[in-house]
Design goal:
two-stranded antiparallel sheet, 2 strands, disordered C terminus, single chain, mainly alpha
Length: about 475
């Protein structure tokens, strides 16, 4: 509480208007990511077969498992880009884009070479029924070829975010989302291609979005030919720093991957209806949590600027505005779902049996925004300052708590125990990340510094 009051004292260094103006495009853009998956689930759900929804869920789960560990490409690129504010740092702006792109291309090659083995191994972990597994393979074998575009998008969106160009990828992703909806409708409702149709639609949308973002960067990115110092790309020290931060983020993401896949596997063990119900609820939860990532993206931008300019007051104001709008948004999301829960659920399926199962667990959607908003918002503070160790540590400890909670509750509460464990995971992550923030301030702004042998009492955390 004392920490939040201290942030409040510095809030005038970042106005509500500026923060929301920066966050809004990122919120819309972030929400478009799960909405693509939600559209696929909703279109397939109209066919009335829970097995098809389960198949899309398993296929999406595997693709997310592949992409999550390399999500650091977007976040690290955003942090590095945000720290390049001066004209003299133009070559660093170039490096912040090209180094992660090269890494993305290398990772893409490895994924495409091993994509069949990845599917086989994932099936051994999740153990879906044969019918669900066949549906999942049809979906996955098409969308896996979108990997180069998905990973390039991570880098390019991160770079634009760090440059404060959030409106650009907001427009592109909204356009891509609308294209995906139209193609889903055409391929499924008109062409009757079922799962193949939604997969092809998503693949086309990915390619179009990636091409448009790349075109914008080439034309409007502000990288001049004289700034393209190609030999400097292979600076060992810079690459080591980037990979060190990426390593911490990958550990954090692997923990998240274990939790997400455990939810999928345990849901599958409870039956196809429960698996399909969880798939729908997870899509709804993802829309909520990805919206918070929009505030996290704004926090990342301002935190990166605060670090680059060593502006401690801006950092404190960023923390305050992020938490303030996170709380407001969590209340809004919970009230919105409470008011329209039945209508929202029916967007995803026409199966009455599945609707009844979903509604029996839907109350968890009222808890999810409050449990998860801190993680996604404060997350931006750490990515913007490229300080990943606290995220790694909190993720490991929270994952351990999740599995303990699952072990203790699943046999008694069933699927409710699974959702309880998820809520505890988000909550523990939130508490731990908040607890690490004073140390982050001390590290970045040397709050223990002394002046003439006297400890500086003038900083906002040492008053």
């Amino acid at each position: 509480m004392t920490q939040v009051l201290t942030w409040r004292q510095e809030r005038h260094h970042l106005s509500n208007r500026d923060f929301v103006k920066t966050a809004l495009p990122a919120i819309i853009s972030s929400m478009s990511i799960p909405l693509l998956g939600s559209v696929d689930t909703a279109i397939i759900g109209q066919l009335g077969d829970p097995g098809l929804i389960a198949g899309v869920s398993v296929g999406t789960g595997l693709l997310n498992t592949i992409y999550w560990p390399v999500g650091f490409l977007r976040l690290i690129t955003s942090g590095l880009s945000a720290q390049c504010q001066d004209e003299k740092e133009q070559k660093d702006k170039f490096y912040a884009l090209v180094r992660p792109l090269i890494l993305a291309w290398f990772i893409t090659l490895l994924i495409l070479i091993g994509h069949r083995w990845l599917f086989g191994g994932y099936g051994m972990i999740v153990t879906p029924t044969d019918i669900v597994s066949n549906h999942a393979w049809v979906y996955y074998r098409i969308l896996i070829w979108g990997t180069p575009f998905a990973l390039m998008n991570y880098v390019m969106i991160g770079w634009l975010s760090g440059r404060g160009k959030m409106k650009v990828f907001m427009v592109v992703q909204i356009g891509g989302g609308l294209l995906n909806v139209l193609l889903d409708w055409f391929f499924v409702a008109i062409m009757h291609w079922s799962i193949e149709g939604v997969a092809i639609a998503s693949l086309i949308a990915q390619v179009v979005m990636s091409s448009l973002i790349l075109l914008y960067i080439v034309i409007k990115g502000g990288i001049k030919r004289q700034d393209m110092h190609w030999l400097g790309i292979y600076d060992k020290s810079a690459i080591k720093d980037m990979m060190g931060a990426n390593g911490d983020y990958m550990i954090r993401t692997v923990c998240l991957m274990f939790v997400k896949n455990a939810v999928l596997a345990i849901g599958a063990s409870l039956g196809t209806l429960v698996l399909a119900a969880n798939a729908v609820l997870i899509q709804i939860a993802n829309v909520m949590l990805y919206a918070f990532e929009g505030f996290g993206a704004a926090a990342s931008l301002y935190a990166g600027r605060a670090k680059g300019s060593r502006n401690q007051s801006l950092m404190a104001a960023t923390c305050y505005r992020a938490m303030q709008w996170g709380i407001v948004s969590a209340i809004f999301m919970a009230l919105t779902f409470k008011a329209f829960d039945q209508s929202i659920v029916r967007l995803f399926t026409t199966s009455q049996n599945l609707i009844e199962v979903i509604e029996s667990y839907a109350f968890w959607m009222l808890i999810t925004p409050f449990a998860g908003f801190v993680v996604d918002i404060i997350f931006g503070i750490y990515t913007g300052t490229t300080q990943m160790a606290p995220m790694r540590n909190s993720a490991v400890l929270s994952m351990l708590l999740f599995f303990v909670a699952v072990y203790m509750s699943i046999s008694v509460l069933g699927n409710n125990g699974l959702w309880l464990a998820q809520v505890l995971y988000w909550s523990a992550n939130s508490v731990l990340l908040l607890g690490y923030l004073p140390g982050l301030f001390r590290k970045l702004f040397d709050l223990n510094a002394t002046h003439g042998g006297v400890k500086d009492e003038g900083t906002i955390f040492n008053r």
